[in-house]
C-alpha cells in the first residue's frame, strides 16, 4: 500500500472529527435499556406526590394532614412547618433570590408546592394528596406584568418587603426584582434625536415551556449507615446540584453523590433545582429510605421552568439608506413569583445584550426591568443560551420594520449593515467581542439556493391575485459557550468545564466530562475529538458523564456550552497526554523530541522511514518503560476556562402560504444555513438542527401559556400545549458554511440552539411578510390559525 | 383495594401478575415486570412514549388497565431484537439517526413495527399520518421518517 493511501486509511479508521459516526448511545435506547430517572428502582423505595395550590395568590389558613396520614400505606405528609426547624422551607435560587420549597404561609402561583406526601406506591400517594385538607384565604392576583409596579398592585413577596436592595440592583417597588442596563443611554438618545429615520416596535415574546418528553424527577436515597446521600435526578448540571444540596443540608460534598442518568430531553427545563427535589431529599433523610418523586405533565408545564415572557420594545435609528446609527431596547421581564432564572450570576437578563445581532451598530442602550407576578417561577433558556432567543428576536424584528419603512428589501438592509468579514474580531457596542464570522457569504448562499428573486416575483403575482404568501429572512448571531469565569459564574462557581482522560496500557481510553448529554450524543462526539487528537479509534474510547462521584466538576450542559467549553477541555486534556506521549516516544526511539513528527496515530522520526511508535506502543510503554524521572501512566485532566464566548451564526429563509379563509399556514419551505465552525459529526449536527427548527416552529406557531385574570393557567396538558406532531412539522432543508472559532482548540462553536434561536424570528418575519403590502409591521406569536384569521379579518380580507 | 390475578403474554412468554383493578398497563410493565423500555410522558394519550403492541394493534399503555389486557398478546420494545440480532427497524433507526435522547424511541419503534405491517410500502405523507400519535421533541421527525422508509425497504428485501 502506498504511503498516502495507508495514511488515509488509518485516518478514516479513527472515526474522528468530521465523520458521521453512528451513535454509541443508540444500542441501549433502541432496545429499551436506557436508564432514565423513573426507571430506577431501589429496595424499600417509597413514592412522593405533591399537594399543590389551586389558587394563584392566597394565604394558607390551615393544613390538616390527619386523613391523609390515616390512609394505609402513607408514611409522611411534609409541609413548610416541618421544614422550618431544618431551615429548609426556603431555598436559594440560581438568580440570587429565594424560593419556597413548600409554601410558607402563602401561595404565590397556581400549582405551587404546598405539601409532599410519601407513600408505598404512586397510586396511594395520589389518593393521599386529595386527603390533605388545606384552607386558603384568597388574595388579589397580579398577572399582567405591566401592572406590577403600579401604586395599587398587590404585594406579592411579603418576605422582601423593606428589602429594597436586590441581588442585582436596588428595587423601586415591592414587585420589582431588578433593573439591568447595558450600553450608553445618553449618546444613544442623542443619535435617535438627530436621526433621519427612526422606527419603534413593541412585541411580546410570550411565555412558553421547554416541555421535554421526560418530566423532571428524582430518586433520593439517604444511607444513614454510611452517611451518604445519593440522588438520581434529571439534571443538566449535576455538579452544581451537589454544591447546592451540600450548602442546604450541611452534608459535605464528599458525602453527596448526584447522578444524572439518561435524560429524556432537557431544553433548559432541567437546569434548575426544584422544590420536588429538595422535599424528596428531606423525606429520604427523615424516613431513612429511598424516595422517588416524578412530576406528571401538568405539574411539569405548570411549575418547573417556563421560558421567555419578555415584553419588548425595539427601536432603531438610521439614515435614509437604512444604515443603522443606533439601537434602543426596552424590556419588561415577567419572572413569576420567585426569581429562579438560570443565568450567570452577573447577568440577570442573560446575554440579552447580544441584541445588536450581526450588525455594525455604533451605539446602543438596553434597559431591562424584572418584575414579580403570580405565575410560576422560571425564566430558563429554552434551547438557547441565556436570553439570546429574545435578543435575536428583537433585533431581527426591528430591522425588518426599518426595512419596511424605508422600502428596502430585507436581504439588502442586512447586507448594508452586516459586520464585515474583515472587521472580526469585532467589539460590539454592548460589550461582546464577536470572534469570527462571514455573514455576507452565508446570506448570499441562502438567497441563491432558494432563488430569492424568483420567490419575490412569485409573491408579487400572488398578491395581485389576492393570495397571501410570505417570505421570512433572518441572519442571526448567537453567543454561546458560557463562559469566561472572569464574567460568568453560577452561585460563585466559574463557568469552566472539564475533562479527564485516561489511556489504558492497551491503548483504549476512558474519559469523563463535567457536562451531561440529554440527546446531543456526547458519548459519540467527545470520543471523536479524542480520536483525532490521540490517534486512537473512537470505538475504543468510552465516555462517561453525570455521576459526581466519578466525573470531574463541571457546570453542565445548557446554553450550547458542551462543545465550546467541555469539548475544548477534552481537546486540551488530550493534548496534555499527547505531549507526554511524545516524550515517551522520544525515549523509546532514542531521539530528541524535536526529531519527531506526528502522523495520524503515531510519532515518526523525521526522515527515517520505519522509525516510529504508535499511540498504542506508547500507551503500553507508559506503564512499564518511561524515561527516568517521569511518573508512569498516561492520563490528564483539564479544567478549561474559555477566553471568550463563541458566536455561531446563520441565515434562515422561510416561505409560507396562508389560507385567507381559515388562517391556516403552510410552511412551504424552510432553508437553514448554519455556521457552527468546525463540524465534529455532520449527521448529529443535522439532527440537532432538525430538532431545534421543530422546537422553533412550535414556539412561533403554537406554544403558549395563557393565564386568566385569576391566575389560572389555561392549558397545561398536551391537549392544549402545542407539541408539533409528524403531520404539521415542516420538512427542513439544511446547509452550512464553516468559519472556525479562532480561540477554540478545534475551532468548534456549538450548534444545537442556533436553529431554535434563528428560526423563531424567521417564522414571524414570514408571517408578517405575507401582510406587509397591507402595512402590517408586526404580529405577535404564536401564529396559530385563530390569531392569523383574526388578523385577516381585521384587515378586511375575508370574503364575507 | 382487592387485587386481581391477570395473565397475558409478554414478548412470547406468559406472565402472571396480581394488580389492583385500577392499575394501568404501563405501570404493570414498568414496575411489576421490570420492562422499563416503554415510558410515561403525558398521562393523556398524546405523546405515545408508552406505546406497546396489544393483539396486533398499537396501544398507549398509559390508557389501558392491566385487567383489560388479560389473555392478550403484548409485545414491547424489549422483545424486538432476537438471537439473530437487532430487528430491521431498530437498525434503521441507528443508521438514519432516528433518535436523540431516546425517550420516545421504544414507543416510536413499536408504532413503526405495527405501522409497517399495516402499510409495508408507505409514502412520506403516509408515514407522517401513520406515526402521528407518537411525539418526539428532539429529532423534528425528519430522520425518523427516513428510518421508517429504510426499514420498509429492508423488510421487503428480507
Structure description:
The complex is a heterodimer of chains A (800) and B (158). Chain A is an alpha+beta fold and 800 residues long. Helix content of chain A is 28%, strand content 24%. In chain A, the strands form 9 sheets. A 7-stranded mixed β-sheet of chain A has the order 3-7-1-14-11-12-13, sandwiched between helices. In chain A, strands 9, 10, 15, 16, 17 and 18 form a 6-stranded mixed β-sheet that branches. In chain A, a hairpin with a 4-residue loop joins strand 11 and strand 12 (228-233). In chain A, helix 17 (682-701) crosses helix 18. Chain A is globular. Chain B is of the alpha+beta class. In chain B, 34% of the residues lie in helices and 16% in strands. Chain B has helices at 25-32, 88-95, 105-118, 124-130, 142-157; strands at 4-10, 13-19, 51-54, 57-60, 73-75. A 5-stranded mixed β-sheet of chain B has the order 2-1-5-3-4, with helices on both faces. In chain B, a hairpin with a 2-residue loop joins strand 1 and strand 2. At the A-B interface, helix 2 and helix 17 of A face helix 1, helix 2, helix 3, helix 4 and helix 5 of B.
Amino acid at each position: 500500500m502506498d504511503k498516502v493511501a495507508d495514511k488515509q486509511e488509518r485516518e478514516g479508521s479513527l472515526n474522528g472529527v468530521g465523520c458521521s459516526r453512528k451513535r454509541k448511545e443508540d444500542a441501549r435506547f433502541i432496545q429499551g435499556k436506557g436508564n432514565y430517572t423513573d426507571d430506577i428502582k431501589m429496595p424499600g423505595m417509597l413514592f412522593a406526590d405533591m399537594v399543590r395550590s389551586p389558587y394563584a395568590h392566597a394565604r394558607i389558613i390551615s393544613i390538616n394532614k390527619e386523613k391523609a396520614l390515616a390512609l394505609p400505606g402513607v408514611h409522611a405528609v411534609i409541609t413548610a412547618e416541618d421544614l422550618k426547624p431544618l431551615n429548609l422551607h426556603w431555598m436559594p435560587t440560581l438568580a440570587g433570590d429565594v424560593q419556597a420549597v413548600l409554601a410558607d404561609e402563602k401561595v404565590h402561583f397556581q400549582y405551587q408546592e404546598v405539601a409532599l406526601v410519601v407513600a408505598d406506591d404512586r397510586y396511594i400517594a395520589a389518593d393521599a394528596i386529595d386527603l390533605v385538607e388545606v384552607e386558603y384565604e384568597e388574595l388579589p392576583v397580579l398577572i399582567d406584568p405591566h401592572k406590577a409596579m403600579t401604586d395599587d398592585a398587590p404585594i406579592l413577596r411579603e418576605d422582601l418587603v423593606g428589602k429594597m436592595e436586590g441581588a442585582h440592583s436596588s428595587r423601586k417597588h415591592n414587585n420589582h426584582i431588578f433593573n439591568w442596563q447595558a450600553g450608553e443611554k445618553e449618546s444613544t438618545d442623542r443619535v435617535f434625536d438627530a436621526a433621519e429615520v427612526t422606527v419603534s416596535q413593541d412585541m411580546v415574546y410570550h411565555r412558553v415551556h421547554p416541555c421535554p418528553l421526560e418530566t423532571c424527577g428524582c430518586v433520593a436515597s439517604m444511607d444513614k449507615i454510611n452517611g451518604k446521600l445519593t440522588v438520581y435526578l434529571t439534571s443538566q448540571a449535576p455538579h452544581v446540584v451537589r454544591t447546592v444540596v451540600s450548602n442546604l443540608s450541611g452534608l459535605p460534598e464528599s458525602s453527596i453523590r448526584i447522578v444524572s442518568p439518561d435524560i429524556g430531553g432537557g431544553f433548559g427545563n432541567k437546569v434548575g433545582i426544584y422544590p420536588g427535589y429538595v422535599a424528596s431529599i428531606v423525606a429520604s433523610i427523615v424516613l431513612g429510605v429511598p424516595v422517588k418523586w416524578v412530576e406528571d405533565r401538568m405539574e411539569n408545564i405548570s411549575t418547573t421552568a417556563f421560558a421567555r415572557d419578555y415584553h419588548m420594545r425595539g427601536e432603531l435609528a438610521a439614515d435614509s439608506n437604512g444604515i443603522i446609527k443606533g439601537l434602543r431596547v426596552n424590556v419588561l421581564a415577567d419572572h413569576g413569583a420567585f426569581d429562579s432564572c438560570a443565568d450567570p450570576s452577573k447577568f440577570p437578563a442573560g446575554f440579552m445584550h447580544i441584541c445588536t445581532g450581526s450588525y455594525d451598530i455604533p451605539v446602543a442602550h438596553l434597559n431591562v426591568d424584572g418584575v414579580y407576578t403570580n405565575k410560576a417561577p422560571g425564566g430558563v433558556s429554552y434551547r438557547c443560551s441565556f436570553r439570546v432567543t429574545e435578543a435575536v428576536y428583537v433585533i431581527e424584528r426591528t430591522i425588518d420594520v426599518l426595512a419596511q419603512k424605508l422600502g428596502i428589501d430585507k436581504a439588502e438592509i442586512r447586507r448594508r449593515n452586516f459586520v464585515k468579514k474583515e472587521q472580526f474580531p469585532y467589539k460590539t457596542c454592548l460589550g461582546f467581542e464577536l470572534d469570527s464570522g462571514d455573514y455576507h457569504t452565508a446570506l448570499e448562499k441562502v438567497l441563491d439556493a432558494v432563488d430569492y428573486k424568483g420567490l419575490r416575483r412569485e409573491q408579487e403575482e400572488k398578491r395581485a391575485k389576492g393570495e397571501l404568501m410570505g417570505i421570512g429572512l433572518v441572519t442571526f448571531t448567537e453567543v454561546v459557550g458560557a463562559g469566561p469565569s472572569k464574567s460568568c459564574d453560577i452561585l460563585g462557581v466559574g463557568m469552566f468545564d472539564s475533562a479527564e482522560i485516561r489511556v489504558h496500557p492497551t491503548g483504549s481510553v476512558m474519559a469523563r466530562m463535567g457536562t451531561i448529554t440529554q440527546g446531543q450524543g456526547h458519548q459519540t462526539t467527545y470520543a471523536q475529538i479524542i480520536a483525532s487528537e490521540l490517534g486512537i479509534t473512537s470505538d475504543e474510547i468510552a465516555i462517561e458523564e453525570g455521576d459526581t462521584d466519578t466525573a470531574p466538576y463541571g457546570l453542565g450542559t445548557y446554553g450550547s456550552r458542551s462543545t465550546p467549553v467541555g469539548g475544548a477541555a477534552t481537546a486540551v486534556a488530550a493534548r496534555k497526554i499527547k505531549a507526554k506521549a511524545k516524550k515517551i516516544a522520544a525515549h523509546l526511539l532514542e531521539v530528541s523530541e524535536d526529531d519527531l513528527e506526528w502522523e495520524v496515530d503515531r510519532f515518526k522520526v523525521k526522515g527515517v522511514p520505519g522509525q516510529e511508535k504508535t499511540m498504542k506502543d506508547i500507551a503500553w510503554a507508559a506503564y512499564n518503560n518511561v524515561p527516568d524521572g517521569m511518573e508512569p501512566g498516561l492520563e490528564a485532566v483539564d479544567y478549561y476556562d474559555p477566553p471568550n464566548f463563541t458566536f455561531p451564526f446563520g441565515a434562515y429563509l422561510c416561505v409560507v402560504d396562508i389560507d385567507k379563509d381559515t388562517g391556516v399556514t403552510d410552511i412551504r419551505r424552510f432553508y437553514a444555513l448554519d455556521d457552527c465552525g468546525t463540524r465534529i459529526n455532520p449527521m448529529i449536527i443535522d439532527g440537532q438542527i432538525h430538532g431545534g427548527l421543530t422546537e422553533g416552529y412550535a414556539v412561533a406557531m403554537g406554544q403558549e401559556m395563557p393565564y386568566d385574570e385569576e391566575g389560572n393557567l389555561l392549558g397545561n396538558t398536551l391537549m392544549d400545549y402545542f407539541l408539533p406532531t409528524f403531520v404539521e412539522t415542516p420538512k427542513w432543508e439544511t446547509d452550512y458554511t464553516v468559519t472556525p472559532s479562532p480561540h477554540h482548540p478545534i475551532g468548534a462553536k456549538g450548534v444545537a440552539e442556533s436553529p431554535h434561536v434563528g428560526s423563531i424570528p424567521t417564522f414571524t418575519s414570514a408571517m408578517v411578510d405575507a401582510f406587509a403590502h397591507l402595512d402590517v409591521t408586526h404580529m405577535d406569536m404564536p401564529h396559530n390559525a385563530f390569531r392569523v384569521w383574526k388578523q385577516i379579518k381585521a384587515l378586511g380580507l375575508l370574503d364575507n | 383495594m382487592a387485587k386481581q390475578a391477570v395473565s397475558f403474554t409478554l414478548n412470547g412468554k406468559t406472565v402472571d401478575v396480581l394488580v389492583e383493578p385500577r392499575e394501568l398497563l404501563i405501570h404493570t410493565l414498568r414496575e411489576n415486570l421490570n420492562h422499563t423500555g416503554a415510558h410515561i410522558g403525558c398521562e393523556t394519550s398524546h405523546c405515545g412514549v408508552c406505546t406497546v403492541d396489544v393483539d396486533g394493534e398499537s396501544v398507549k399503555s398509559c390508557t389501558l388497565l392491566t385487567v383489560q389486557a388479560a389473555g392478550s398478546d403484548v409485545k414491547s420494545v424489549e422483545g424486538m431484537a432476537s438471537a439473530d440480532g437487532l430487528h430491521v427497524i431498530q437498525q434503521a433507526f441507528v443508521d438514519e439517526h432516528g433518535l436523540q435522547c431516546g425517550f420516545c424511541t421504544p414507543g416510536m419503534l413499536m408504532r413503526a413495527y405495527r405501522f409497517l405491517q399495516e402499510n409495508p410500502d408507505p409514502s412520506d405523507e403516509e408515514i407522517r399520518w401513520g406515526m402521528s400519535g407518537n411525539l418526539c421533541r428532539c429529532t423534528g421527525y425528519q430522520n425518523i421518517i427516513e428510518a421508517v422508509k429504510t426499514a420498509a425497504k429492508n423488510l421487503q428485501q428480507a
